[in-house]
Amino acid sequence: MPGTRPVFLYLRLSRAHGDGRDAIERQRLDLMRKLATEGGWTVMGEYVDRDSASAYARRERAGWRALNAGIASGRVRAVAFWKLDRTLRIASRCLEWVTSCQQQGVTLLSHQDSTEELNSVTAAAKLSTGVKALLAEAETDTMSERQRAAKRHAAQAGFINGGRRPFGWHPGPRVSDSAGRTGRRLEPHPVEHQALKDAVALVLAGAGLREVAVHWQAKFGITGLDGGLVSEHKVRAALISPRMVGYRQYQLPPHQRGVHVDSLDYIARTPNGEPVISQEPVCDLDTWHRVQSALRSRSTGQRNGWGARAWLLTGLLRCPCGRPLSGVVQPQKPDAGGHRAVRYVYRCKANRRYGVGTCTGGASITAPVAEQYVIDWLFEFFSSDRLNAHNRKVASANVAAVTRVDAELAVAREELESLRSNASPLTVGSEFHQIVTAMMTRVQNSVAKLNDERAALTAECPELLTHEQLVAAWPTLNSESRRTLLRQLIHQIDLAPGRRGPAERLDIVLHAIE
Description:
CATH class of the domain at 5-142: Alpha Beta
Mean pLDDT: 80
Structural class: alpha/beta
CATH architecture of the domain at 5-142: 3-Layer(aba) Sandwich
CATH superfamily of the domain at 5-142: Resolvase, N-terminal catalytic domain
Number of strands: 12
Distance between the termini: 36 Å
Oligomer: single chain
Order of helices and strands: EHEHEHEHHEEHHHHHEEEHEHHHHHEHE
Number of helices: 17
C-alpha cells in the first residue's frame, strides 16, 4: 500500500513445548495487530514451520531456509516474528543471524522483544539479545536431554518411538513392562511377516531379489507404490535389517555412500549388554547371517561388474529423463567355440526401479566409447585456452570468498571487544559474568573458524595440471583418482537418445563458479 513498507511474517509452532494446533494462528493474529497499531507496514507473505525445538528439528525447517534465501536475494527487507526464540535457539547462530540482518539492512520486528534492541548495533543491545538467545539455547539443550533419555528407555523396553512402520510388523496395543514403563511394541503383520519368511527360504534356495518381489506380488499381493513390483532395494533393506532376528534398531547413523556400517552395532541393549528382543523374529541369528552371505554373493556389484572394471563416468552420465545412468554388463551369445563375450553399457534403470513409463526418453551408450570420448575431452581441456579461463574464474571466486570472510571477521572482532569491555566491571563468578564469558567463548570460536577459513583460502593452492603433466600422470592414476579428477571439473554429462556418435550425443556441463 502507498506510504508503507513490505514485511514478511515468520511463524513457528513448537510441538515439544505443548503448543496447541492454533499456535500459528495466535502468532499471526498478534503480529497483524501489532503491525496495524504501528502502521506503515504491508504484509507481503509469511514463512511457516511446524516442528519441535529439538536439535534434530532445526535441520528440517523449510520455512526458515526459504526466509533466509529471501533475505539473501534482497526480496525480504523486513521480518516480523512473535519472539526471538521462534527463529534460532543456538545463541551464537542467533547473534550471527541478527548481525547479518543488520548488515543487510533488514528490519526485525518482534511481538515480545524490543524492536530497538533487535535493530541496534550497540554493545548493550547485543548483550541483551545474547542473554535471551543463551536462555533459549539452554532450554533446547534441556529438552533434548529429556528426549534422549525417553528414547533410551523406550529402546531398552523394546517400545516403538516414532518413525516409519517397518515392513513385516505393525504397532500393537499399549502395554507396561516390569519397570512400569508403558509403550507399544511391534506385532507380526498378518501378511508381510509370512512374506519375509518366504523370502528367507527363497534367498537361501538361490533366488534373487527380483524373484522375491515377483513371489510377493503373486502370492501376497504386495506391490510397490506405483502398483508394480516392490523394488529390489526395498526387498534387500527388509532382509538385512536386524529386526529379522527380533532386535530393535537404535541410533542407526544415516547412510553415507561408500561407508559400511554393521547394523548389529546399532541395536538396543539392556543395561547388562544383552540385545533387546522387541518383536517376534522371522528367523534365528544363524539363518539371518546365511541370508546376508547369500545376498552379498549375488549383490548388484557382482551382477553389474563393479570392481571387475572401472566405471569412469558413474554419477556423471545423465539420461534425458534426468536420472543417472548405471553401468551394466550385458553377456552376449556364445560363439562357435563356446566363448561368451560381454558388453559394457551405461543404461537408465528408472523403468526397472520405479515402474514402466517412469523414463520416456531412455538412452544408453557403450561404456568404452563414452569413456574414451570424455578422456579425450579432458586432455583437450588441459591443452587449450579453456584451462586458463577456468583458472581465472577460480581465482576470482577465491578473491570474493576472502573478501566475505574478512568482513565477517571484522564484525566478530568488534563484537568480541564489546563483550570484553562489558565483562571487565562485572564480578567474576557471578551469573551475569558467566553468561558474558560464555558469549565471549562462542565469539572466539567463531573468530578462530573464520581465521582457519581465511588461511585455507589464502594458502597457495596447486594449479591444475598442465597437458604435459596430465599425460605423464594419467597412466599412474587409479580408477578412483581419475573419477575424482573428472568430478572436480564436470558437473554432469547429458546423454541424448539415438545412435549417433558420442560427440553428437554427449553434452559435458562444467561446474558453475560464482
